[in-house]
Amino acid sequence: MAFPEDFHVIVGDFNDGFVEIVAEAVAEAFDPRQRLRVHGTSEADRILAIADERPVDLFVLFLNNVTFGQWGRSLEADSFVKALMLVRHLKGVHRRPIIATAAFPADFLYEDIAIRVGADCFFRMPFDMKAFTKAVRELFPERASQATDRRPAHLSAWAGSHGFKA
After folding, report:
1. Contacts of 157 (CB under 8 A, 6+ apart)
2. What topology is assigned to 6-156 in CATH?
3. Using omega within 30 degrees of 0 as the cis cutoff, is the peptide bond preceding 97 cis?
4. Are the CB atoms for 74 and 27 separated by under 8 Å?
5. CA 101 to CA 123: how far, in whole Å?
6. What is the pLDDT of residue 146?
7. Of 18 and 2, the one with more pLDDT
8. Facing residues of 40 across strands?
9. What average pLDDT does the segment 124-141 reach?
10. Is this structure's pTM higher than 0.90?
11. Hey, where are the domains in the chain?
């Protein structure tokens, strides 16, 4: 199987730790021979500039933490609604998968709206990283790592046997 040279992800958040966690989860979802390029920024203007400069394969947007400068200045809405409008804009212009996250665990309305405006998946913070990795695999089945058990085949075959623990 031939792999594209790079897989580009834009993570819309100001927290470097979150960007690293997303990068690790995406890397785990794919064959290790692929090169992952992750760009993290919370600024909507920068997200749009990066997306215009090079192909982007996946957007991961923490909707609560996106900040607005020039883009969104004329929009009469709070920042969360602007973030939802950014999802719609990115989906319309770039037509790439978008995973949206937000820190409103009690309100299911945000998930519904995010999906309706173009997000492919929505995760309420905090979320299970295994579920996130699974969602990435499902969005990109042609790039996904095929085996979840990374032990060599001769050890994987014994994993379910009684009395043997690899």
Report:
1. none
2. Rossmann fold (3.40.50)
3. no
4. no
5. 5
6. 58
7. 18
8. 11
9. 92
10. no
11. 6-156
